[in-house]
């Protein structure tokens, strides 16, 4: 994009219209990388609602449509956007992936990669709280494992909810090796807080 003068950021309805006009949801992925790198130095930074709209327009359709690993351009754009707007990205992207139908193997792998390599600690906590809001499934266990792999300090209420969820779901996952590994990880990482 060409240089833009220092003008106030558009409000969300204007931004949706601008995204549609620029066809950002279907722009080529190399252009997506350039657009995201152009966004980062903007001052003032985008508001949370504006960043969420951009996350939806730029990434949601592409991520939900994945049937194979994301291209390096898509990962570069996601990583770039995440470096400044990880919270709005999680609000939009994680919620949609968690509520999506079917296995969504590529989407789950992408979430794990974002958790492991890109998200700030407060966004990792947001992902955990979002996962715990939906019925636990085999598809979500790797995401929880990725969250635990970060070994972030969790607020007591979030850790309590995690432990309670695992206790309640244990009978349904009695034969799941992934679930057993997850419980072991919780007991290892948070052994001083789990009785």
UniProtKB/TrEMBL annotation:
<feature type="domain" description="Fanconi Anaemia group E protein C-terminal">
    <location>
        <begin position="12"/>
        <end position="194"/>
    </location>
</feature>
<dbReference type="InterPro" id="IPR021025">
    <property type="entry name" value="Fanconi_anaemia_gr_E_prot_C"/>
</dbReference>
<dbReference type="InterPro" id="IPR039685">
    <property type="entry name" value="FANCE"/>
</dbReference>
<dbReference type="GO" id="GO:0036297">
    <property type="term" value="P:interstrand cross-link repair"/>
</dbReference>
<dbReference type="Pfam" id="PF11510">
    <property type="entry name" value="FA_FANCE"/>
</dbReference>
<dbReference type="GO" id="GO:0043240">
    <property type="term" value="C:Fanconi anaemia nuclear complex"/>
</dbReference>
<protein>
    <submittedName>
        <fullName>FANCE protein</fullName>
    </submittedName>
</protein>
